[in-house]
Design goal:
0% strand; 5 helices
């Protein structure tokens, strides 16, 4: 009995990898074994990047809040601790957006906290 190799699925699998590797340099976009390694590594970088993006945005929000709060005569850490004391439950993303786009509302929150 002849062996079964299932070339349809094998070809589909290879085409899927080569499609993801489109635009890569030299043999990385055309040779399957090289492209497979490049696509796998790209997936690892993408996964790490998604985590780093969250870290970067949080850091940006903290910087914006700190700059806005220092103009009002407070430090960032004291502002955050006083927010918690007063029970004002706004996250850093919302606070940074208020500080940037709606300074009057942000000043009202700072005045409420002082």
């Amino acid at each position: 009995m002849p062996r079964s190799v299932n070339s349809v699925a094998s070809r589909a699998r290879r085409k899927k990898v080569l499609k993801k590797a489109r635009g890569y340099f030299l043999s990385r976009h055309s040779v399957y074994t090289v492209a497979k390694n490049a696509v796998d590594k790209a997936g690892v970088y993408a996964y790490i990047g998604r985590k780093l993006k969250k870290r970067d945005y949080r850091s940006l929000w903290i910087t914006r809040i700190n700059a806005a709060v220092r103009a009002e005569g407070l430090s960032y850490s004291k502002f955050i601790s006083k927010l918690a004391e007063k029970g004002i439950d706004l996250n850093r993303k919302v606070l940074a957006d208020l500080a940037l786009n709606n300074p009057e509302a942000f000043k009202a929150i700072v005045a409420q906290v002082k």
